[in-house]
Amino acid sequence: ELAERDAKLNVSVLCPSHVRTRIYDAERNQPPVYHNGDAAGPMPQQALEAIWSEVAERYKDFGGMLSPETIADCTFDAIRDERLYILTHPELNALLAERTQAMINGRNPMLYAV
Q1: What angle do CA 83, 84, 90 make, to 5 degrees?
Q2: Could you tell me whether strands 85-87 and 13-15 are parallel, antiparallel, or unpaired per DSSP bridges?
Q3: pLDDT digit string (tens) for 66-79?
Q4: Do the beta carbons of residue 51 and residue 21 sit within 8 Å?
Q5: How many CB atoms lie within 10 A of CB 45?
Q6: pLDDT at residue 32, as a whole number
Q7: How would you write the chain as a 3-class SS string?
Q8: pLDDT at 87
Q9: φ, ψ at 44 (rounded to 5°)
Q10: pTM of the model
């Protein structure tokens, strides 16, 4: 709609998949035993690494975990190319197509154990 009006503004929608952030470092995402005030103290680095290892294994068939820097590079490239959708993990395109087709056919989406 913006292009039809010769607007000098473009829009992109970032649809990131698995990004290696520090989300598990946040206290709210850790088991209660590691919360401030408990005798256990902060979550040990070894425990955090074990969580990341498990997450990486779970997502390896879906393009793996990308760094925030890689997501940023994808984003800037797509904005420069004036692409509307920014899909960071092409390995998920088949699942996206299945889900879209299910919507068109009036079916509920399949659930994926990831």
Answers
A1: 75
A2: parallel
A3: 899 999 999 999 99
A4: no
A5: 9
A6: 67
A7: CCHHHCCCCCCCEEECCCECCCHHHCHHHCCHHHCCCCCCCCCCHHHHHHHHHHHHHHHHHHCCCECHHHHHHHHHHHHHCCCCEEECCHHHHHHHHHHHHHHHCCCCCCCCCC
A8: 93
A9: -65, 145
A10: 0.64
